[in-house]
TrEMBL record:
Function summary: Provides the precursors necessary for DNA synthesis. Catalyzes the biosynthesis of deoxyribonucleotides from the corresponding ribonucleotides.
Coiled coil: 329-356
Gene Ontology MF terms in the entry: ribonucleoside-diphosphate reductase activity, thioredoxin disulfide as acceptor
Keywords, in A-Z order: Allosteric enzyme, ATP-binding, Coiled coil, Deoxyribonucleotide synthesis, Disulfide bond, Nucleotide-binding, Oxidoreductase
Pfam families the record matches: Ribonuc_red_lgC (PF02867), Ribonuc_red_lgN (PF00317), RNR_N (PF08343)
Entry EC no(s): 1.17.4.1
Gene3D superfamilies: 1.10.1650.20, 3.20.70.20
Catalytic activity, reaction form: a 2'-deoxyribonucleoside 5'-diphosphate + [thioredoxin]-disulfide + H2O = a ribonucleoside 5'-diphosphate + [thioredoxin]-dithiol
Domain Ribonucleotide reductase large subunit: from-to ranges: 560-582
Enzyme class: oxidoreductase
Protein name, UniProt field: Ribonucleoside-diphosphate reductase
């Protein structure tokens, strides 16, 4: 019986999995998940994995029938391939939950063209990933295989899914592009969005440079239609360019909070918006300079400035002008058209929309630029708000050719599994190996259809190593999320990721005698970047956290001094190294909690399109750990913000920080609450708290309603790890 012939009446694993959500004598029947896992293999996997007599026969078949590329395998001897595959089998990998196995075989395992049989197991997929990223380096292939089969390292979904396949999409997770204030750039930007969506990535687009609705064009007053029609064109483009119908095209647009179209921009996402302006699938992000928080705090009027006039006066696109620094000058300048609103009224509009839809994302752009070690300006973020890198604008002629090539961004992502990495025999070697794997993705990416993205990648070699599984690790170790010990652990863990990715990027630069573009203008080259590591220690202080890091080398201040000198001498290969992306289905495969935020439920409920509801028990859940698992919806979000803020000081890019609230907030959770119903004031307080704690960006705001629905719970499948 093939997969196509499977009948729901012949299988038991869905029923067994659903029984996990039905308490027996007030106990969660976790044994049912183990039974569902066993049944899934016996009823689904084992009968439907295509059998071969040996590895060579299998590889020959996959190559001959155009499933797997031959070129990357030909870099290795057959003996090495046999030995590596045997080494991985001997690791005795086992899925720990039904959801983990189901997600892998349903979404990631290579299948026959007719979808009837599996052509690879988890070991095989990891095998191909390790060989592909190692690019012929046998020692690196072995190291990568060890990291992935032990689930210490997880490549992003596009990389993990596509590595080695003959017919594949790109390895890149997402892209960031910008438009400038002319029709050529708008046309080129829409074409770029089509092309990037076609090849597999979610696309973020900066619209802040476009002149506002009603602005003059060639002296004709009121001629400009503003950003809304461009948003509609982009939404239709993503809907059309949807990878042969395999997924809904995904895009996010960013607009500066001082842009005159900001109210219309936000209104386009409202449920009751007129269909002429409403965007249903496009994500919204707001770029927020420091000056906005000052105006809100002091309850002042707020002026919005015409991007056309600002560019005319300052000689550079609106996104590149420091509004916080120039705000008063712009207010006083009569040559700049401006519009007055109440800052707190706009703040209230943002909160209302976040209550209703989870949008907009927030990019605290001045915070991002203050902490940016690379020369240049960050002007936007991506579909999941964690990528923050410098860009430069392009200048186009009427043939839509580049008179001046700009630089845009591609995201090369992967994640550490915190719990598993903490058991690595060599923490530093593990992280260095991951850095090599991600660098290979950057080195081999060449998005010819969008030259600005290709150029940006070629100059920066940027990557984004992140982390997942914080809550499940803390629960396993009997530490409460957000506690002093938890924050201390986060501080040391991300210091270590920073140290070892820096060390390896420096080693790559030394080997290749090449650094990222304009390294000499960075704070790495001046040495300023290292000041905090030379003046304070991030080593664990409490006995409990010291115990967690027992056997793991903690860099001393002298180690940091030595690294600083090595980097000043030989440079860094990667302009950016770290970013905390959301972890979607891949966190289930890793049997761990998602990203750095708390779990949402002890038994998480997922709705699968064809098979209804599936259930995922919190990892390591038992009678001892249950007390350390509080739902994100019942957690003071300041604990989440504090956790991310501690990690942020070591991360050169951003993090996908999600806020979780109930529509009826539990009594006593927040001291400012006089009533239980969630209000816009609650969201405003939390957003401002995040800003003052140094958070660079906020992803979704998710609200759990009284009728058990989740608002703002969309997943960015293209960008998530």
């Amino acid at each position: 019986m093939s997969l196509k012939d499977l009948n729901i009446s012949d299988i038991s694993y869905f029923v067994l999995n659903n029984e996990v959500n039905r308490p027996v004598d007030n106990q969660i029947p976790l044994n049912k998940d183990k039974e569902a896992l066993k049944a899934f293999f016996h009823e689904n996997v084992i009968p439907n994995v295509k059998q071969f007599n040996n590895l060579k026969e299998k590889l020959d078949f996959l190559i001959e029938h155009d499933y797997i590329e031959a070129e990357f395998l030909e870099q290795y001897s057959q003996d090495f391939l046999e030995n590596l595959h045997k080494r991985m089998e001997d690791a005795n990998f086992r899925f720990k939950s039904f959801m983990a196995a189901y997600k892998f075989y349903n979404q990631y395992a290579l299948k026959t063209n007719d979808g009837a049989y599996y052509l690879e197991t988890f070991i095989d997929r990891v095998f191909f990933n390790a060989l592909y990223y190692a690019n012929g380096d046998e020692k690196l292939a072995e190291a990568l295989a060890d990291e992935m089969v032990s689930q210490r390292y997880q490549p992003a979904t596009p990389s993990f899914l596509n590595a080695g396949k003959k017919r594949r999409g790109e390895f890149v997770s997402c892209f960031l592009i910008q438009m400038t204030d002319d029709m050529n750039s708008i046309g080129r930007g829409i074409n770029s969005a089509l092309q990037l969506s076609r090849i597999g990535g979610g696309v973020g687009i900066a619209l802040s440079n476009l002149r506002e609705s009603g602005a003059p064009i060639k002296g004709i007053e009121g001629a400009s239609s503003g950003v809304i029609p461009v948003m509609k064109l982009l939404e239709d483009s993503f809907s059309y360019s949807n990878q042969l119908g395999q997924r809904q095209g995904a895009g996010a647009v960013y607009l500066n909070v001082f842009h005159p179209d900001i109210i219309q921009f936000l209104s386009a996402k409202k449920e009751n918006a007129d269909e002429k302006i409403r965007v249903k699938t496009l994500s919204l992000g707001v770029v927020v300079p420091d000056k906005y928080y000052e105006l809100v705090r002091t309850n002042q009027d707020m002026y919005l400035f015409s991007p056309y006039d600002v560019e005319r006066i300052y000689g550079e696109p609106f996104s590149y002008v420091d509004i916080t620094k120039e705000y008063d000058n712009m207010v006083q300048n009569d040559e700049i058209r401006k519009y007055k609103i109440k800052a707190r009224e706009l703040e209230n509009e943002i909160s209302k929309l976040q209550q209703e839809s989870g949008y907009p994302y927030i990019l605290n752009v001045d915070t991002a630029n203050r902490e940016n070690p690379v020369d240049g300006k960050i002007i936007m973020s991506n579909l999941c708000s964690e990528i923050q890198q410098v860009q430069t604008p392009a200048i186009l002629n009427d043939k839509q050719e580049f008179d001046q090539m700009g630089t845009d961004i591609s995201c090369n992502l992967g994640s550490t599994n915190i719990g598993n990495l903490m058991t690595s025999p060599d923490f530093g070697k593990s992280v260095k190996t991951m850095t090599r794997a991600l660098t290979f993705i950057s080195d081999t990416s060449n998005i010819e259809a969008v030259p600005t993205v290709a150029k940006g990648n070629q100059l920066s070699h940027s990557i984004g190593l992140g982390a997942m599984g914080l809550h499940s690790f803390l629960a396993k170790e009997h530490i409460h999320y957000g506690s002093k010990e938890a924050l201390e652990f986060v501080d040391t863990y991300f210091m270590l990721l920073n140290y070892w990715t820096l060390a390896e990027s420096n080693q790559i630069a030394r080997e290749r005698k090449q650094t990222f573009h304009d390294f000499e203008k960075s704070t790495y080259a001046t040495g300023e970047y290292f000041d905090k590591y030379l003046t304070q220690s991030f080593a664990p202080k409490s006995d409990r956290v010291k115990q967690l890091f027992d056997g793991i080398m903690i860099p001393s201040q002298q180690d940091w001094q030595d690294l600083k000198e090595a980097i000043q001498q030989d440079g860094l290969y990667n302009a950016y190294r770290l970013a905390i992306a959301p972890t979607g289905s891949i966190s289930y495969i890793n049997d761990t909690s998602a990203s750095l935020h708390p779990i949402t439920r002890l038994i998480e409920e997922r709705t699968e399109k064809k098979n209804g509801k599936l259930y995922f028990p919190a990892p390591h859940l038992d009678n001892e750990t249950i007390k350390y698992y509080t739902s994100a919806y019942d957690t003071d979000m300041r604990k989440v913000i504090d956790t991310y803020a501690v990690a942020q000081q070591h991360i050169d890019q951003g993090m996908s920080l999600t806020l979780f609230l109930r529509s009826t907030i539990p009594e006593g959770l927040y001291e400012w609450k006089e009533e239980e119903e969630q209000t816009t004031r609650d969201l405003s307080i939390l957003r401002n708290y995040a800003y003052y704690k140094g958070i660079k960006s906020i992803y979704y705001v998710r609200t759990f309603t009284d009728d058990s629905q989740e608002v703002g719970s969309n997943e960015c499948e293209s960008c998530s790890i």
